[in-house]
Amino acid sequence: MSHLTGDPIFLFIFTGVVTLTYFATRKMFAHDPREPPLAPQSIPIVGHMVGLSRSKFNYYVDLSQQTDSPIFTMPLPGQKMYVVTKPELVQTVQKQHKTLAFPPIEAKFASKVCGASLEAQAILAKNVNGDEGDFGLSMESYAATRAALKPGSQLDDMNRIMIQEIAKSLDLLQSAKGESRQVGIYAWLRDAITTATTRSVYGPMNPYDDKAIADAFWEFESGLMSILVGFLPSLTARKPVAARTKVAKAFEAYYKAGGVQKASALAQKRYKVETDNNVPLEDIACYEVEGSIAILVNTAPSAFWTLLLLHSHPGLLDDIRNEIDACTKTTTENGSTIKTIDITALKESCPLLLSSYQEVLRHRSMGTSVREVMEDTYLDRWLLKKGAMLQIPSRIIHQDANLWGSNVTEFNPRRFLPGEKKNRPRDVCFRAFGGGKTLCPGRHFATNEILAVVAVFIARLDMKPAKGEWNLPTTANTNVAAVVMEPDDDIHVEIKARQGFEDVKWAISLNKSEKIFAMVTEDSGETE
Fold first, then answer.
1. What sign for the dihedral angle of Cα 339, 343, 348, 353?
2. Percent of the chain with pLDDT over 90
3. Contact between residue 130 and residue 139 where contact means Cβ atoms under 8 Å apart
4. Is residue 67 part of a domain?
5. What CATH number is given to the structural domain containing 158?
6. Residue 405 sits in which domain range?
7. Of 2, 84, 374, 503, which shows the fewest CB atoms inside 10 Å?
């Protein structure tokens, strides 16, 4: 010990490290009085980290109730965070999309998650925020995705493949007449939706048709947090990294075999943007693994909660069945009764089903819109410092009793009925799909898929809990990339053909996708 303390070089280095740490910490936790007010924390410096680890997405709700401010500051070790709590300020954030920017964060997340090469990261970083115009991998990818997923013929092509795959999965689920079967409903939904979604996106050479690749993706997805926060993920997150590599190799083979040429407009447009920007093929495959998160992770839990909550609320299932039955077309072919459910008809004639689905998203979503502060700027009257992060947790707004009423924590399937509009807040307060420049471009496809599986399931099958009563599973282990809560445990159910419909054959159709279910301000045309 005496030798170490007497070494002038050691003393110099030690003093320098302590000094740098002091000034870095001081800067990190310094608070300008013009900034949003500081949120209280029980333990200095690390209190918010402890709170987030214990309460997860509900921690933001707890803090917002304690601060009573439309925005507050939440300093974290290594990062200053601002958290927006009121819809009025959300609108202002969305208008300042260049100084409060999402693309730089998304680029860092994508490269970290998929393990992109330094070359690919440099390509993605070029004009990442569109400050120099609408060119570059980041800007062109956003434009390509929005173009492919907007209502129209290209979305219709995807939808029609998707609904036929959903129909096949439901046919396989239904047992022979008079018989029942037990399944884990979440596992079944995830498999069915993974198949339907990926076949509609990637075409007949879909890499996820190999169950080993689909399983590897979910192994990767379950370990996202360890990849994001781990030091040297190749060592500390070996299983998810190995699973990611397996999926990426499958995509690389898919591209080399020309699979994308037979795929959807979405897959083709994304691939063209990447090749036009000289992204190496290995990295295109890696980025597609990250892209799979967006198309797969949130649909199954949304369908799960919709089915579970509709079945567990007395009387609700019968009312929704009556709506679906009323818009179901019945025909006879070769002596067989065929019932066809059209997705467009559901959106036109099933207000309680649509209201219930939207309420599921309000009740069960916990996603957070994130922005990086690109330069010192003012948001309303508050100063935001360059380099800080800004978050808009949907759960704060969705759980605000001042907006939604005293029953805000309850699942109210009639909350979004047209006749209830005067009793609920403006559309901007519904944040399940984000908003502004980062509004989820896949919301129409996801809605069609969830309505298809839920409506046809309800119309043709009876379901009851295998253990005798409905219980909502906990959601503490929801993944970092999820927008909708994921159940910690599956619900095992007993399923059989709906009484009186045992001999019916079922079909799903889609008339046109121009008829959308408008849940957000950008679709409803609501103005402030």
1. positive
2. 76
3. yes
4. no
5. 1.10.630.10
6. 137-367+399-524
7. 2
- pLDDT tens readout for residues 233-262: 878 889 999 999 999 999 999 999 999 999
Per-residue CA distances from 320 to 277, 314, 460 (Å): 49, 12, 13
**Nearest Cα residue to 193 out of 224, 165, 221, 161:** 165
Sheet architecture: strand order including 505-509: 329-333, 336-342, 505-509
**Residue 183, in any domain of the structure:** yes
Tell me which residue of 386, 385, 388 sits closest to 80, measured CA to CA: 388
The two structure tokens encoding residue 131: 């400050």
* Residue 296 domain-assigned (yes or no): yes
How many domains would you assign to the chain? Answer: 1
Distance (Å, whole) CA 359 – CA 377:
36
**CA pair distance 454, 280, nearest whole angstrom:** 40
Are 450 and 301 a contacting pair, CB within 8 Å? no
350, 327 contact by CB (below 8 A): yes
DSSP state of 207: G
Helices (H) and strands (E) in the chain, counts: 24, 13
The pLDDT tens digits for 157-198 are 999 999 999 999 999 999 888 899 999 999 999 999 999 999
7, pLDDT greater than 60: no
